[in-house]
Every structure is written in structure tokens, then in C-alpha cells.
Amino acid sequence: MDLTVHVWRQKSVKDQGAMVSYPARNLTPDMSILELLDQINEELITQGEDPVAFDHDCREGICGSCSMVINGVPHGFEKASTTCQTFLRSFRPGVDLYLEPFRAAAFPVVKDLMVDRSALDRIMQAGGFVSVNTGAAPEGNAVAIAKSTAEDAMDAAACIGCGACVAACKNASAMLFTAAKVSHLALLPQGNVERGERVLRMVAQMDAEKFGSCSNQGACSAVCPKEISLDWIAKLNREALRSQFQRIVTQADRTVNQR
Ligand code: SF4
Ligand code: FES
Description:
This protein starts with a strand and ends with a helix. Helix 2 runs parallel beside helix 5 and helix 5 (about 175-185) crosses helix 8. Helices cover about 40% and strands about 10% of the residues. By secondary structure, it is α+β, with helices and mostly antiparallel strands. The chain contains eight helices and seven strands; from the N terminus they run E-E-H-E-E-E-E-E-H-H-H-H-H-H-H. The strands form two sheets. Strands 2-1-5-3-4 form a five-stranded mixed sheet. It binds iron/sulfur cluster and FE2/S2 (inorganic) cluster.
């Protein structure tokens, strides 16, 4: 199949970017978007031109690095799929493809389709550690956790940190990502020691990183390749409220005891 591929080219965050069109010929329907870019890059390198910069690693929907916008949708319109899991067979032959970087103030463009998503890492770092010794794997039933709780925690832990939720949100909010990260630890006993402080630190870091506010439109969950539910945002809000309330109660207790 043949396609015309329009790719956002931008040398650095300081340079002006523009769409550049590349005709791509003799493609096979089973090629992924990343393999299409590989082919374009091989031709560019052969012609002595600068190849298109894009992020990728696992190429099987696990690492979350292949973040780009395909025809206006982060990771493309295939449900529950990352860019590396989006194949040319999903598009009509002869169709035009538009590939752009994720756009958000917190995700500055590094080059072409590659953006700096380290703001998400800093939210995770703000959450800190769990003060439970890890060591060797314990006996499976040593810590009793209800099956439904374990399954909920696994659902939240499925977030791969790709940032598509931010790119899809008109406010560039990172609430869905932060909610998933806060919730999976809050549900399990191992994450309970720092539960209260963790949520407040992560939310504070999220605000400090220029992410916008959540307005409950749901665009984040609709594009999420791991189908992280909006329910987790409600859980994040409950966790933050719970923690703030506990702080007030602790402070009040201290004041009473000092009298
Ligand atoms: S919540 Fe979904 S879209 Fe957002 S970072 Fe996690 S996996 Fe990606
Ligand atoms: S390259 Fe790892 S999720 Fe796509």
C-alpha cells in the first residue's frame, strides 16, 4: 500500500516546527506506525537527510515511550492500543497520515515527534518510597489481600506512563496518570504507611509541573491505551481529601495536648 505521511519536524524546543510530507511506497498492511517511520528514516538517511526523531523501546505496548499523535488522536484511534500497536491495515490505502508530537506545556518538544515527559517521572519521585522491606519474595498468602482489591490495584498499576491522557486533555491535565499511580499503592497494605503524605506530595508536584486542572470531560480515559478508568480520578480526590482531613485532625490533637 502507498500512503502520504505528514510528519512534524522541529529541530529543538527553540526552533519553529512545521509539517513535512513524505510519500511512502510499497508498505505492507502489517507494518506498525513505528515501522513506517523506520522505512521513512532509512530513505532519509540514504539521501543524506536528518532522520525523524521519535521515542520507542519495547514496541509491544509495555514501556509507554512511543508517544505521538496520529491523525489528531494520541496513539491513534485504535482502542486500547499504543502507537507501536497501531498497524497500517487500520488505514485505507492512499489515506494521508499526520504524525505530531504530544502537545502540552509540561511536555516540551525535544525534537520532531519526541517530547520530554520527565514531568511524569518527577510526580512519581515526589510520591517517594514504600517503607516496607522488599527482600526476597514472601509466601504468596502471607499478606491477605481480598481478590477484588488485588484486581483493582492491578487495574490501576496497568498505567504505562505514556502521557496520552495529558495530550488528549484540553487542559493538559495529568490527573488520570497521577490517580492511577496514587491509587494502586493506596489500595495495598504495602503502600499504606506513606499513603496520606504520598498523595499530597504527588498532587503538589503535578501542580508544580504546569499540568492543567481536570474538568471531567473524559478525553484522557478515552485515549488511554490501558483503559484506565475515570473512577480512579474520583479515588484520587477522595485520597487527597482524606489526607488533608487527617492533617487537620492531627494538628488539632497536638494543639489540645499542648494546652
Ligand atoms: S493513565 Fe493511560 S494514558 Fe495516562 S499515562 Fe497512564 S497509560 Fe498513559
Ligand atoms: S514502544 Fe513501548 S509501548 Fe510502544
